[in-house]
From TrEMBL:
SUPFAM superfamilies: Concanavalin A-like lectins/glucanases. Gene3D superfamilies: 2.60.120.200. Belongs to the glycosyl hydrolase 16 family. GO terms for biological process: carbohydrate metabolic process. The keyword Cell membrane does not apply. Keywords: Hydrolase. Residues 1-210 form the GH16 domain. It comes from the Bacteria. Pfam families: GH16_XgeA (PF26113). It comes from Streptomyces sp. SID7499. This is Family 16 glycosylhydrolase. GO terms for molecular function: hydrolase activity, hydrolyzing O-glycosyl compounds.
């Protein structure tokens, strides 16, 4: 699968793919794992200004709109902006400004170095772990944990509303937006069309509390 940003007569078009299902959820006291093998758009410098590839999830109640965001949860499995040699993962939850999830930034890993993420496929994953004694969300690149958000980072109600329900998956490449701008670049005449985000596979799996 390739998601390719294009430009015609000065206007940009790109793609966003969502799963039909919106009931991907951890079993009671178990684990939900969501992963994809992705190569980022192979463009950098001024030509990448405004590029924003992402793999993420939203709570099922947001299927028809953003009412209730961020309370019902968003897990950014992988994001990258402006052709940087970095990726990051984040959790959005709680209330729109501030709150336990530090919105609108969210509980983020910050930039993680990845020098070959544009040329090579890497496996990006998130696990929602509701097993007693764990109760956390974990982010992985190539099976290495690089970020965690534990349930005790917020009150019990915020945690439950954010993770204890079904989600749907989203793959997209945006061009422009607040995150690339916050990183210091805006889409402009030098931004190059035609550089795809390549997706080799997507997988969802669960593990019960008993394994």
């Amino acid at each position: 699968l390739e998601i390719v940003p294009t430009r015609k007569d000065g206007r940009w078009s790109s793609g966003r793919i969502t799963t039909v299902r919106s009931d991907f959820a951890p079993p009671p006291g178990g684990v939900l794992r969501i992963e994809a093998s992705i190569a980022l758009p192979d463009v950098t410098g001024p030509g990448a200004a405004g590029y924003w590839p992402a793999f993420w999830t939203l709570g099922s109640s947001l299927r028809d709109g953003y009412t209730g965001w961020p309370g019902v949860g968003e897990l950014d499995v992988m994001e990258s902006v402006n052709g940087r040699d970095t990726v990051f993962g984040s959790m959005h939850c709680g209330v729109l400004e501030g709150g336990p999830c530090e919105e609108p930034v969210g509980l983020t890993s910050g930039p993680q170095a990845c020098a070959d993420c544009r040329e090579a496929f890497h496996t990006y994953a998130v696990e929602v772990d509701l097993t007693p004694g764990a109760r956390e969300v974990r982010w992985y690149r190539d099976d290495r944990v690089y970020h965690r958000v534990r349930a005790d980072a917020m009150d019990a109600g915020t945690w439950k509303r954010a993770v204890d329900h079904g989600v749907f998956l989203i793959l997209n490449v945006a061009v422009g937006g607040k995150l690339p701008e916050a990183d210091g670049a805006t889409v402009g005449p030098a931004t190059e069309p035609g550089h795809p985000m390549r997706v080799d596979r997507v997988r969802v799996a669960t593990r019960s509390a008993t394994g």
